[in-house]
Specification:
There is one protein chain. The longest helix is centred in the C-terminal third of the chain and has 21 residues. The model has no long low-confidence stretch (mean pLDDT about 95). The protein has 2 domains: about 130 residues, Rossmann fold; about 200 residues, 2-Layer Sandwich (Dihydrodipicolinate Reductase, domain 2). The strands form 3 sheets. Strands 16-13-12-11-7-10-9-8-17 form a 9-stranded mixed sheet. The chain is an alpha/beta fold. The protein contains 10 helices and 17 strands. The relative contact order is 0.16.
């Protein structure tokens, strides 16, 4: 009996799609059938470059039309890495074509667009999921155990997340993420989405009570109608827990997640893109302050936690798990409503942070 396989198409030839070319190849239950661009030469060049490093058993077909890709009956699922400004139109078309949709984030420029995408997927009975890879790492299971064991951090009080990179001049003057029609949320959409998703994951996707956002810096390409955020921070408030986030194109690489409670804390130094290696993990700390008359001592009590998982380019990596897990849902034939639900919540919180920043960092209560 032949093994069931989810047949994939990639709609667009963005740089991130090169990584996922390999992810699809590494996922045992998936195969890549075709790659589409609006220019056949671009899709063929994409395939040639990727095939030279990571060949597929059967070389995917280059296509010069998005619509032609959606019309194929030998494609079950679409990976959609188009710019955010173009994403919602084609995401709805993917769903209406009866194809399952793995969509890069943010999935739309506003909440209404994301609601429309999810509604289209619901109508046609296809699976929807956003492309946050760290959600599919085994490390998260181990972090959840530490949060809930009652001793590593105790009662949760505070969450802090940061994700940034220092963009070169060419990025700030040429990249699509610096154009308000293509990526209107700038660093908030590109990096802040991850920081907010991690906060919401820690909180089991409870809706925050209130948020504030602060636009620290903004800029745009010479052809951008408006500047986009290049440095952004915010606060996310829950019933008994506060959280903060920071994202930036102006600060060098950092991807910190820190969770604190009344007994200790844990720290992940690479929560989005794990550092290179075959084990990924985090540190927990239960420091003790000891005072004996004149002798004051702050004692370090740390523990390293790891899972056996390659950081990248491997059958065990989180990007491969993303495509493996999505393909399994497609093959099972029963869409999981959890994934569109958390995308919608993430988009709602992000847009409310943006609204706060646009109104002088006024605190906004979420209903």
């Amino acid at each position: 009996m032949s093994k069931k396989i989810c047949r994939w198409g990639i709609l667009g030839s963005a740089g991130i799609a090169q990584k996922n070319w390999q992810s699809i190849r590494n996922a045992e239950n998936a195969e890549l059938v075709a790659v589409a661009s609006r220019d056949m030469a671009k899709s063929q060049d994409f395939i040639d470059r990727c095939s030279a490093q990571v060949p597929h058993a059967v070389t995917p077909e280059a296509m010069g039309s998005y619509d032609d890709l959606l019309a194929r009956d030998d494609v079950d699922a679409i990976y959609l890495p188009l710019p955010t400004g173009l994403r919602s139109e084609w995401a709805v078309k993917v769903a209406e074509a009866g194809k399952h949709l793995l969509c890069e984030k943010p999935c739309g420029t506003n909440l209404d667009q994301v609601e429309e995408i999810i509604a289209a997927c619901d109508r046609t009975g296809v699976q929807f999921m956003d492309g946050v890879m760290f959600m599919h790492s085994k490390r998260l299971n181990r972090v959840r155990e530490a949060i809930e064991d009652g001793s590593t951090i105790g009662d949760l009080r505070r969450i802090n997340t940061q994700f940034s990179f220092c963009a070169p001049k060419e990025f700030l003057t040429e990249n699509i993420r610096m154009h308000s029609d293509l990526e209107p949320h700038g660093c908030l959409g590109d990096l802040g989405w991850y920081t907010l998703r991690f906060i919401l994951w820690v909180m089991d996707y409870a809706t925050p009570k209130a948020v504030t956002g602060r636009l620290l810096n903004s800029a745009g390409r010479s052809d951008s109608p408006h500047p986009v955020p290049t440095e952004f921070s915010g606060e996310v408030l829950f019933e008994d827990v506060s959280a903060s986030f920071y994202c930036s194109f102006l600060t060098e690489h950092q991807q910190l997640a820190h969770i604190s409670g009344n007994k200790g804390n844990l720290r992940i130094d690479d929560f989005v893109l794990p550092y290179y290696g075959n084990r990924i993990g985090f540190q927990s700390s239960n420091a003790e302050f000891d005072c004996d008359v004149c002798d004051f001592r702050m004692e370090r009590h740390e523990q390293a936690h790891h899972v056996e998982e390659y950081a990248n380019s491997h059958v065990s990596s989180q990007e491969t798990n993303l495509f493996r897990n999505f393909s399994s849902l497609v093959l099972e034939g029963k869409p999981d409503p959890h994934w569109p639900k958390i995308t919608l919540l993430t988009q709602k919180v992000m847009m409310t942070c943006m609204e706060s920043a646009e109104t002088g960092s006024k605190e906004i209560v979420l209903s």
